[in-house]
Amino acid sequence: MSEFRALVLREADGKVSAQIERLPETALPDGEVIIDVEYSTLNYKDGLILKGLGRLVRKYPHVPGVDFAGRVSLSTTPEYKPGDAVLLTGWRVGELHWGGFAEKARVKASQLVRLPQGLMTKRAMAVGTAGFTAMLAVMALEEHGLKPGAGEVLVTGAAGGLGSVGVALLAKLGHAVVASTGRAETHDYLKALGAQGIIDRASLAQVPTRPLDSERWAGAIDAVGSTTLATVLTQLKYNASAAACGLAGGNDLPTTVLPFLLRGVNLLGIDSVMCPKPRREAAWARIVRDLPMDKLDAMTSVVPLSELPELASEILKGSTRGRVVVDTRA
Ligand SMILES: NC(=O)c1ccc[n+]([C@@H]2O[C@H](COP(=O)([O-])OP(=O)(O)OC[C@H]3O[C@@H](n4cnc5c(N)ncnc54)[C@H](OP(=O)(O)O)[C@@H]3O)[C@@H](O)[C@H]2O)c1
């Protein structure tokens, strides 16, 4: 019987611990397609799951990893055949269902996306859930009228995974990107990704004292939430939009309705997890078209499964930079 390596979370006395184990293929959950996973990634949500936080996992033992890319090894549907290159993000894989921090995964065929032409599995995971979400945010901003030349577009949590991809995408599309970061040592990195300006995240982090501030942003991608997003709303230009993607700074939103009523601004909710398949495919096609691969490579580090428990603490502290790809076979 073929065995595979997986990072397994087990719970004892309310504490969650992670170790690499060898599992038989029969341990895989139900599903129509078995995938030889080549790469997965570390996202903020993986950090929470690896540390047993956020009540995201209900049943242990559990294999985390909210995204993966690899090749089909077995399929019971005609849609996929062995050797097909596929990727998966979301659908609560890695939280309710076993995920991608393993050499094998079994999922529903409907949850898979064919690897778009021009993208290898490693780069697909360099994008991963965080980068895919940044693409969804750009698409939503465009659908609400954002055009190059409209003015400065803000990205918060810019040196993180979602933020880094957001900066690179917006810059490539011709926007004047301003990156908000709390880390001075990432300024050169963010400029290399295409940021024209940088602001200290502390300048957005206070509870807004006025319901409306001076109009500055033609659009915004926000990975932080809380007082940061509340401040951004007070600074959006007339009719401009902010895409709410994350909660790295908190899940509250201490705002008023005045920016909506007096400036007609839009708050756009971005969800990557249950995003319908046609929009997923459209977003991946846009990623191939609009994300410069040299910038993607520059923001990516590759780690083995064994480093994940330590890196989970780092990503929750906000101290990882860019995207972290997991080589499941290393
Ligand atoms: N909506 C969705 O479907 C979806 C999908 C993916 C991710 N997300 C969310 O998006 C966020 C970013 O995810 P990620 O994987 O890119 O995580 P990440 O790599 O850790 O990036 C988050 C960044 O936020 C900043 N940050 C961290 N703590 C902060 C704090 N207390 N106050 C202000 N800024 C802080 C840091 O950037 P600087 O050092 O540059 O300031 C950090 O690098 C997370 O909240 C995640 O849950 C949502």
Overview of the molecule:
The protein is of the alpha/beta class and 330 residues long. It folds into 2 domains: 142 residues, Quinone Oxidoreductase, Chain A, domain 1; 141 residues, NAD(P)-binding Rossmann-like Domain (Rossmann fold). The chain has 10 helices and 15 strands. The strands form 3 sheets. Strands 3, 4, 5, 6, 7, 14 and 15 form a 7-stranded mixed beta sheet that branches. The relative contact order is 0.16. The site of NADP nicotinamide-adenine-dinucleotide phosphate has 33 residues, from helix 1, helix 2 and helix 3.
Number of strands: 15
**Count of separate DSSP helical elements:** 10
- What is the CATH H-level superfamily of the largest domain? Medium-chain alcohol dehydrogenases, catalytic domain
Number of domains: 2
Strand content: 25-35%
The name CATH uses for the topology of the largest domain is Quinone Oxidoreductase, Chain A, domain 1
CATH architecture of the largest domain: Alpha-Beta Complex
Keywords, please?
about 325 residues, alpha/beta, Quinone Oxidoreductase, Chain A, domain 1, Rossmann fold, 7-stranded mixed β-sheet
